[in-house]
Design a protein that fits this description.
Layout lengths: L7 E4 L5 H6 L3 E4 H6 L5 H9 L8 H13 L3 E7 L5 H10 L3 E6 L6 H14 L4 H28 L4 H9 L8 H15 L8 E6 L8 H7 L2 E6 H6 L8 H7 L6 H15 L3 E7 L7 H8 L4 E6 L7 H18 L1
Parallel strand pairs: 1-2, 1-3, 3-4, 5-6, 5-7, 7-8
Length: 332
């Protein structure tokens, strides 16, 4: 069988990345390229120059800008289980000549439907079953290391909330090289062993990863320790199963909110969380989920909305300071 040419495969949210690695390609989470750039605003500006309205989610515009600037010619678009604007973005990218590979997480969590989607992806990339089994085994080891980093955030308290965020969110593509990423993560764990425990009131961070650039650093500065990053942890796929379909059925992000709520409640209890920060993105449909979360989670919640990739503004800082001060007083 002729081996396919190695290429970068972009994607719009976490997908079964094992398949891309096993196909011999380089997976690339477009969100991470966008938000970690030194000047992410230029991607948004590119989208707006090309006609995207100002009154829509800047993550979508950022992804578009990344694809256009970086010359990525193949993108896996998650049509169901992610952003409600993805279908329109897929149509625009296809119009621009980008090869679109659709993938969906079934809303009703139907196992057979998800298996069909995974099988289609395997078939599209012409993945050898033995190669896939080998990659799955190796990636499992990397994910165990990431689980250790997550545990060290809340148990030993030697990993900051921002470090937790970065390690887990980048696990969606493992920087395109899972073996190297696993080695980097293990080296990071060794570096933390000489640290003293972090002081601060335990808080959890739920909702999509923030577009705000300095929120973790600010929380550290005002005496909060983020011991739980909900969605970032889910992106790392920390589930003990050898069945790929089961792994991505257990993954909560693309499905209804109620599985997320169960996961959040478990982690609040396990990690001793005193308060929750719910991050929402301007113009995102997930903002409405705040209504359900506030009525089902028995823990103080502060909702913070972001729009552009920039630092916290004065009002946001004041709200965070008041919230953390309230948690400290309750904890005494």
């Amino acid at each position: 069988m002729k081996k396919a040419k190695r290429k970068i495969i972009g994607f719009t949210t976490t997908i079964p990345v094992e398949i891309i690695f096993a196909a011999g390609h380089v997976p690339c989470d477009l969100n991470n390229i966008f938000i970690t750039d030194e000047n992410p605003l230029r991607f948004i500006e590119k989208a707006e120059r090309d006609g995207f309205p100002k009154s829509m989610c800047n993550w979508i515009k950022g992804i578009y800008g990344v694809v256009m600037e970086k010359g990525i010619d193949t993108v896996i678009m998650v049509m169901e289980g992610d952003c409600s604007n993805t279908k329109a973005l897929a149509e625009i990218l296809e119009f621009k000549g980008i090869n679109i590979v659709p993938f969906s997480f079934p809303f009703d969590r139907d196992r057979h439907a998800l298996k069909r989607q995974i099988d289609k992806l395997i078939e599209y990339f012409n993945v050898d079953p033995e190669a896939l089994n080998s990659v799955e085994d190796e990636i499992k080891g990397v994910r165990e290391i990431l689980k250790k980093i997550d545990e060290m955030t809340w148990r030993e308290k030697v990993v900051t909330g921002y470090e937790n965020h970065i390690w887990l969110i980048r696990s969606s593509d493992m920087l395109g090289n899972y073996k190297k990423y696993g080695k980097m993560a293990q080296d990071f764990i060794e570096e933390t062993k000489s640290r003293n425990p972090i002081q601060g009131v335990n808080v959890g961070f739920i909702g999509i990863p923030p577009i705000i650039t300095d929120i973790y650093q600010f929380l550290d500065a005002i005496g909060a320790h983020v011991v739980y990053n909900e969605i970032q942890r889910q992106f790392s796929i920390p589930f003990d199963t050898s069945d790929m379909v089961e792994r991505y059925l257990t993954y909560t992000y693309p499905y209804e909110i109620f599985a997320r709520i169960r996961d959040i409640k478990r982690e609040i209890k396990k990690r001793g969380i005193k308060g929750i920060i719910h991050y929402v993105q301007a113009f995102c449909f997930r903002v409405m989920e705040d209504v359900i979360l506030r009525e089902t989670i028995e823990c103080p919640i502060l909702t913070i909305e972001g729009e552009l990739p920039k630092p916290l503004d004065t009002r946001q800082k004041m709200r965070l300071e008041a919230f953390i001060e309230m948690l400290k007083e309750k904890d005494n």
